[in-house]
Structures are given as C-alpha cells and as structure tokens.
Amino acid sequence: MTGAAPSLTDAQRLDWLRLIRSENVGPRTFRQLVNHYGGAGAALSALPDLARRGGASRAIKVLPLDDARREFEIAQRHGVRFVALGEKHYPVRLQAIDDAPPLLAVRGQQSTLELPMVAIVGSRNASAAGIRFAERIARDLGQAGFATVSGLARGIDAAAHRATLATGTVAVLAGGQDRIYPPEHTDLLAALLEHGAAISEMPMGWEPRARDFPRRNRLISGLSLGVVIVEAAVRSGSLITARMALEQGREVFAVPGSPLDPRVEGTNGLLKQGANLTTEATDVISVLQPIMGSPLNELPGLPMAEPDLLSPADGEPDNNVRVRVVSLLGPTPVSIDELIRLSGTSPALVWMALLELDIAGRLTRQPGGLVAMIAPEE
Description:
Blueprint lengths: L9 H11 L6 H11 L2 H14 L11 H13 L3 E4 L7 H4 L7 E6 L8 E6 L5 H16 L3 E4 L5 H8 L5 E4 L13 H7 L4 E4 L11 H12 L2 E5 L6 H11 L3 E4 L10 H8 L3 E2 L3 H12 L26 H10 L5 E2 H8 L3 H13 L3 E4 L3 E4 L5
Parallel strand pairs: 3-4, 3-7, 4-5, 5-6, 7-8, 8-9
Antiparallel strand pairs: 1-2, 2-6, 10-12, 11-12
C-alpha cells in the first residue's frame, strides 16, 4: 500500500459501527454503500429509502447512536479497540478478501497481527496423536517467525494456541469479545493475549450460534498465508475453512492419517484433491516462503468494492430497470455480469437495483459475485 493509511475520526467510527450493525448490511453491502454515498453517515441516512425502493415489507432497523456508543464503552472496559478496514493496523491479508469485516474488534498485541500467519485447525474430538502433532508443528512454525491462527475451539485449535503462547497466536472468535466459547477456554484466551491477540467481527455481548462459526472460519483463512488441517472428519467445520482458503487464494496443507480413523477421513480427502502433504513444519515453510516474498496487490485505503461502478451522478434505477432485474433473479445463483448483460442496462443501475433489494432483505450474495433472490416467507 502506498501513502499514509487513513484513520477514522471518532464520529466516523461510530457511523461505521452503526452501519455494519444495521439490518441487512453485511461486509460486501457495506462497501457498496460507502462507495456510493461517500461515507457511512450518508449511507445511514439513505437506508430507509433504499429498503422502501427495494420492496421491504417493513421499516429497516438501523442501530441507534446511543447503542453504538454503549458498545464502544463496553469494548473499552474489556480492552477492545475497533480497527477499520483501510487503517494502518488492519491485518493486510484479511483486508484483501472481498468480504473483509469493515470493523474488527481487536484485543491483545497489535504486533502479532503484523507477523506472517499460518492457520492450524482440526477436530474438536482430537486424538492424542493429533494434539501432539498440532503442538509440534505450531511450535516449530512459531520458532520460524510465524504467528499461528485458530478458533479457540477444543482439541486441535486449543493445542495450536497453547504451543505458541510465547511466540504469538491469534484467536478468532465466533462471538463477541466478552462471550468466549467454549467458556472453559477463558483462561487460555487470557494467557495468549500476553504475546498474541484475539479478534472478532461480532457485537459485544453476542453469544455465538452454529451459523456464526463458518462465518468466523473465513477470517481464520483470510488472516493466513495458508491453512494446516489436522484431523478433519468428512463433515468437519475445518473442511469449510479449507474451502474458504481456496476461494481466497490461500494454500491448504493436510496432515495424513490412518484410513481406519474417521477423524482423518476429510483430511485424507483433501490430499486426494491436491492439498499439500504435510508431516512437518518445513513442508509448510517451503511453500509459503515464496509467497511471503511477493507483494499483495494495491489495496484501497477505504472499503471500495466496485470502484467507478456507483457514484451519485449515476442516479437511481427507474421501475422498468427494477422490474427487469427482479425478473431475471430467482433462487438459483446467477453472476452479476450475466444480469448486466441480460438486462441490457448500465452496470451502475443494475448494481443500484441489487443494492436496494439487498437492503430490503430480498437478496442473498454468494462468493464469486453470485446473487439470488430470497424466497418470501409464507
């Protein structure tokens, strides 16, 4: 990144928090709103009208300013700071993924987030051998100058964290910074904060739910140069992390295991699909060293997702454009490029029509630039 990284004012940071905490606003939608309106404050003012134009059945819920201030106060009491996308201390590799959180709640040592990182994840119901291997490879990677990243879960995650307490490890939380899961790892988190860090995109006070863990997994892979999978069953959440790593252009490493052990069936499957065979830390380091030497693409200082596609001068789509876009959408995901081609209208107007549907809660966005309509509730 060239030039000095921008820094938000306190008022802007509150606006960012209100916008990302508002109904139907996710990371991709946040970027489009800020891109179009030039700031989170203006986007907040536009949300009710956008939802109306998109066909929302009720008024959209916008986070009140007092609630945002309260979350900031709670965060400060827990030693948590909010780092914005594009700011100096935002993890550079995480910033490069297309659904990077606009605001990260960060606790612990900022310097750890500036180290090259390797994720180590695997079974919660890990074998003694799996735990021993996770500890060994994590320790060796730590001594080689890498920080480890994991999800603070039982089993492999906890083993990787414990082995690198002295060299630096990063815990990615599925809930708020004050809602640690599992609860018995509260002491482990406190210990890792001395030389490491914990991050979350979830609100303070948020109790993690089942669907929050895949969302967290994209951050684990997004922070990292590569992901090491240790003991993953066929339906393991670690395989979700591996898939997300591939989508993000990260390296995937898999530790082989006995074909008789169901805990490694998924890991052995990754090897059949071309994952890097891993039996020691040097297998990881030899693949990652060339990547560390190549710079990332230029990253935007502000969260612009589709530069030059949306600007206030483009205006709003009329009802004919809206009807045309809606008629082309259905439950089957379709690419936005295809929508633009089939609609016969400008990219900017198609993007705006999709943004209206998104804010109205009628659209779902998927990786690869795909969108689909959400079936109405009966």
